[in-house]
Design a protein that fits this description.
By secondary structure, the chain is α/β, with parallel strands linked by helices. The protein has 3 domains: about 1-160, no CATH class; about 170-450, 3-Layer(aba) Sandwich (Rossmann fold); about 460-500. About 35% of the residues lie in helices and about 15% in strands. It has helices spanning about 85-90, 100-105, 110-120, 125-135, 135-145, 145-155, 210-220, 225-230, 265-275, 290-305, 305-315, 325-330, 335-340, 345-360, 380-395, 405-410, 440-450, 460-470, 475-480, 485-500; strands at about 1-5, 20-25, 35-45, 55-60, 95, 170-175, 185-190, 200-205, 240-245, 250-255, 275-280, 365-370, 400-405, 415-425, 425-430. Helix 11 runs antiparallel to helix 14 (about 345-360), helix 14 runs parallel beside helix 15 (about 380-395) and helix 18 crosses helix 20. The longest helix has 18 residues, at about 380-395. The protein is elongated. The termini are far apart.
């Protein structure tokens, strides 16, 4: 299929033998200095009658390693009315700028639509094109500028018999201030042999950068950054990077810390970027009160909850907290004040959290949860994690949890645990050397949180006691009334064995 280029509002005369063909009109709109936008017109026959011309609308087209600036726009050196050489078309990537583009293509004969998609090298239709371009900065910033574009990339081509691939693994490199190198993460949410990987965890000692990493991940995956908006640039135009862009269409940030660093969008910004924040920080700068949290629950249940989501909420809440009348609590929020007041502070936070997540989640959402263990006792924490896992499974979504709790890590396979360490100013991200799923809390704590310079846990106490008692293990046991825990007793035995060897 021949393709012709023209300047904006210019008319072109086409050779008789060209039909059907495509005419691309240059558009001077740019995405943060990347010029990729064209208006596509399918010419079916000479003339401009209803059956002769099909205006398809906006399509974005880029070339490999395209740099910023209008001079780097594809086909820029061609004159208005020129036919685009086949060799140039073989080296581009395109994606419709909205669903209308593909809807209009569906109105023409299928073989003609397929020919057009192939000629323009549509990356939603041709997986090999997507594979080639998906790590290109222009591709990520311009072609995938908004959430709708990321959905179209995964779904539009399948309407025409093309390949459809969901990306559930990606790498992220995050350079924190003062660090000599970037934190480098590899997240893979694809289940393996039935082992769940929908939830990953970032763990480490205080001061290694977990909270900052979570805030940066929220920016990279939602594209929402107040600083970037102020500077009129893309949030991806920074020292941080993500590759390839995963099939994640919305982001929910959750934190009950008074010191989290997540961006807080306005309602309009949240809708534009498909990003929402749930936490203790009030928009007016203070911490939310108990009444604030109750009002949020009521507002969400009344305004933002479909019946399907209400049913999901009731299913997960019954395993999370005890409420006298769960049906009334969910379906009649104006009457739930007394029930809410009888809940503990931790239960209120857990309920607020799960209600907000369910109200905002849709397929392929990423939940970024910073320190869920705050204010929650261990049983409530594991209940919240189970509820979150059920919601993720129901909505084909994912979560990254930053935590200090070995109970969180205990629920995850080692492939999903990312341990941040720091050697002076050099950051490292490592995986556990043992299977964390179901492992003892003490073993997890020893690997993740123990510091070789300041290791003053129960083992150091046992070593000192054994020294004081002249190596008499039984004397140490008697100090605890003969009731040492299994882990402590095994360690004591290991000290005797080492001494006798």
């Amino acid at each position: 299929m021949d393709v012709y280029i023209r300047d904006r509002h210019a008319s072109v005369t086409l050779p008789e033998k060209s039909y059907p063909c495509v005419v691309l009109e240059r558009d001077n709109w740019n995405d943060y200095a990347y010029y990729t936008l064209f208006k596509a017109q399918l010419r079916l026959a000479p003339g401009f009658g209803l059956g002769s011309v099909k205006n398809l609308g906006d399509v974005k087209i880029m070339k490999p390693n395209q740099a910023e600036g209008v001079d780097n726009r594809p086909f820029q050196k061609l004159g208005s009315g020129d036919r685009i050489p086949t060799r140039l078309l073989r080296d581009v990537c395109s994606l419709g700028s909205g669903s209308d583009y593909y809807d209009k293509l569906m109105q023409v004969e299928m073989d003609l639509a397929q020919a057009l998609l192939s000629t323009l090298r549509d990356c939603s239709y041709l997986p090999a094109v997507r594979q080639r371009f998906q790590s290109d900065q222009c591709f990520k910033i311009s072609l995938l500028r908004d959430s709708e574009a990321r959905v179209l990339l995964d779904t539009a081509g399948a309407r025409f018999g093309g390949g459809s691939t969901l990306i559930s693994s990606f790498s992220a490199a995050i350079k924190l201030e003062g660090a000599s190198a970037a934190h480098e993460f590899a997240f893979d949410f694809e289940s393996l042999d039935g082992v769940p990987r929908r939830m990953h965890s970032i763990v480490g000692l205080n001061g290694v950068g977990k909270t900052q990493v979570m805030a940066r991940l929220a920016i990279l995956l939602s594209r929402f950054s107040k600083q970037a908006i102020k500077e009129k640039r893309s949030a991806l135009q920074s020292d941080d990077s993500i590759s390839p862009v995963p099939s994640i269409y919305s982001v929910v940030a959750v934190s009950f810390s008074a010191f989290d660093e997540f961006e807080r969008p306005t309602q309009l910004q949240g809708e534009e970027f498909q990003y929402s924040y749930c936490g203790l920080q009030h928009p007016q700068g203070r911490l939310k009160t108990k009444d604030d949290l109750l009002k949020e629950i009521r507002a969400v249940l009344v305004r933002d909850m479909t019946q399907d989501k209400r049913d999901l909420l009731k299913r997960v809440l019954q395993n999370l907290v005890r409420v006298d009348d769960l049906e009334s609590f969910v379906e009649e929020p104006e009457n739930n004040k007394k029930m809410y007041q009888r809940l503990s502070a931790g239960q209120r936070l857990a309920i607020n959290c799960i209600i907000h997540i369910i109200s905002r989640i849709r397929p392929r959402t990423l939940i970024l949860f910073d320190e869920p263990e705050l204010h929650l006792h261990p049983q409530l924490l594991t209940g919240l994690l189970q509820a979150l896992n059920e919601v993720l499974e129901h909505q084909d979504s994912f979560s990254i949890v930053a935590t200090h709790s070995p109970l969180v890590i205990q629920q995850l396979p080692k492939e999903c645990v990312h341990v941040i360490r720091r050697d002076r100013m050099t950051p490292m991200v490592v995986k556990p050397t043992f299977q964390t799923f179901g492992e003892s809390v003490s073993e997890i704590t020893r690997f993740v949180f123990a510091s070789p310079d300041t290791d003053r846990d129960y083992r150091a106490v046992l070593e000192r006691m054994l020294d004081d008692d002249g190596g008499d293990v039984e004397a140490v046991r008697q100090r605890f009334g003969g009731q040492l825990s299994l882990n402590a007793d095994m360690y004591l035995e290991s000290l005797r064995t080492a001494k006798d060897a």
